[in-house]
Amino acid sequence: MLSSVVDSSLRHRNSEDDGMDGSSPLYHRYGEQSISSREGSHHSQKLALFRPSADTVDLGYHTLDNNVCRIPSSPSTAITARKQLFQQRHIYALGLCDLDDTQLLKIFSWLSTRDRCALSQTCRRLWEIAWHPSLWKEVEVRHPQSASIALNTLARRGLYTSIRRLVLDGATSLSGVFNSLPFSSLTSLSIRHSKRVSDSNVTTILDNCIHLKDLDLTDCGSITKAYTRIAALQLQTLDLSDCHEVNDSGLVLSLSRMPHLSCLYLRRCFCITDTSLVAIASYCGGLRQLSVSDCARITDFGVRELAACLGPSLRYFSVGKCDQVSDAGLLVVARHCYKLRYLNARGCEALSDSATVALARGCPRIRALDLGKCDIGDATLEALSTGCPNLKKLSLCGCERISDTGLEALAYYVRGLQQLNIGECPRVTWVGYRAVKRYCRRCVIEHTNPGFSS
Fold first, then answer.
1. Which of these three, 272, 296, 321, is where a domain ends?
2. Rounded distance, CA 142 to CA 102, Å?
3. Cβ count within 10 A of residue 337
4. Does 213 score more than 50 pLDDT?
5. Does 211 share its domain with 265?
6. Do 204 and 210 meet the contact criterion of CB atoms below 8 Å apart?
7. Please, what's the b/e burial string for 182-198 (b: 16 or more CB within 10 A of its CB; e: otherwise)?
8. CB of 357 closer than 8 Å to CB of 381
9. Tens digits of per-residue pLDDT, 216-265?
10. Does 168 share its domain with 121?
11. For residue 316, is it within any domain?
């Protein structure tokens, strides 16, 4: 998207550079020439951005040409319509250009990448404001085929030194732009859903973007590792979710260069095993957030090793749908990770009340807990009601042993509860539902019982 707009802006500027001496009405700030003297050049100009009338068809920002407007066939009516259109354009450009640069920069800072590029096509002054480096600290390119072109365009203007956050959604090619340009200010990079991004591309990025702190490679199917030749990266967040080719050896190699990593997401990385969890515990001692949900090869051994090494530094932990994780692993979590705030154990069907009661007593700071499809009952809810007073979100979906007794105890003591999922809990009746509604007045309740009133 950005590349198409940028290229359109460049083509327009090149074609109109010869007319910068005042031949175009949009380049005059104070309107020295009369309307009649400029009607002849009207057909060769781009339309300025204005609020479209009822007879205007919006075909997109890059097609805002005069042929878009439905001008009546009558010559006299057409001339009148063109005069009115010109007046709207001229007043619009005149109003913006009357502002000083500081005010214009403030206005442009609230616009999207697409809108800034579109406004840059209206006049020379707005073109200069739109390409001010301070406006290009965050860039999003969501046109898959043109990510490389867009980056090269920004590079030609020297803006790569200003970019701090860059999003390339679905990029099909990067063509070595990170190899030739050191993005010295880049701290956050997201390359999501890019099937053609390879390990060598990622290595080049990590080698050249030395200040990078956040890297998101979600659904980059060809990635096996995020390796760099630099001894130690400043990277703090790494997201490799849905990178199905990532395995233990590649992850161990990657983590060996990331001593400052605090957030790691490995959702649906099906190839990783307990070896990866042992490596995480060894190389990333300050890790605060970890998700290995849907990684079916993770077992209690890896969870125990991880919890024992990370201890209180771990605040967010997800083992959802890791069906080999049971009480043996989460008992160690309850013993060592007493600062835990979020736990997702959905689908761990071997989990019972013994582990969840220990979690409620050992991790009093828990605010969000997902125990869906676990073999737990009212004992867990009673332990949560006394052990976790700050609980805000709780999912019990599919917990068939939960009943009204446990819900009443939970609702009475944990009145700050904001979200509760009791779907597919056959033993919960309107009595438990009404207790939650009575004591937890801000709670949003999800359920599958048609008998419950809203």
1. 272
2. 29
3. 25
4. yes
5. yes
6. no
7. ebeebbbbbbbbbeebe
8. no
9. 999 999 999 999 988 889 999 999 999 999 999 999 999 999 999 999 99
10. no
11. no
Please, are residues 44 and 65 in contact by the beta-carbon 8 Å criterion? no
Locate 442 and state its tokens: 């801000």
Tell whether 158 and 268 lie within a shared domain: yes
> Which tokens go with 351?
């989990």
345: how many CB neighbours lie within 10 A of its CB?
Answer: 30
CA 231 – CA 368 distance, rounded (Å):
37
Q: Is residue 30 part of a domain?
A: yes
What CATH number should be reported for the domain holding residue 247?
3.80.10
DSSP 309-331: HHGGG--EEE-TT-TT--HHHHH
- Per the structure, the complete domain to which residue 162 belongs is given by 138-272
Contacts of 256 (CB under 8 A, 6+ apart): 279, 283
Residue 123 is predicted with a pLDDT of 85
Query: Which single residue is written with the structure tokens 């990266």?
Result: 233
Phi first, then psi: give them for residue 48, nearest 5 degrees: -75, 160
Higher-pLDDT residue of 182, 378: 378
Q: What is the DSSP letter of 27?
A: G
Which stretches of 145-225 are assigned E, i.e. beta strand?
A: 165-169, 188-192, 214-216
pLDDT value of position 126: 86
Which tens digit of pLDDT belongs to each residue from 174-185?
A: 656 677 667 888
**What whole-number distance in Å separates Cα of residue 154 and Cα of residue 105?**
18
Among the residue ranges 110-114, 218-222, 294-298, 418-422, the one predicted with the least confidence is 110-114
CA 62 to each of CA 114, 124, 284, 333: distance values in angstroms, whole numbers, following the listed order: 10, 18, 47, 55
* pTM over cut 0.85: no
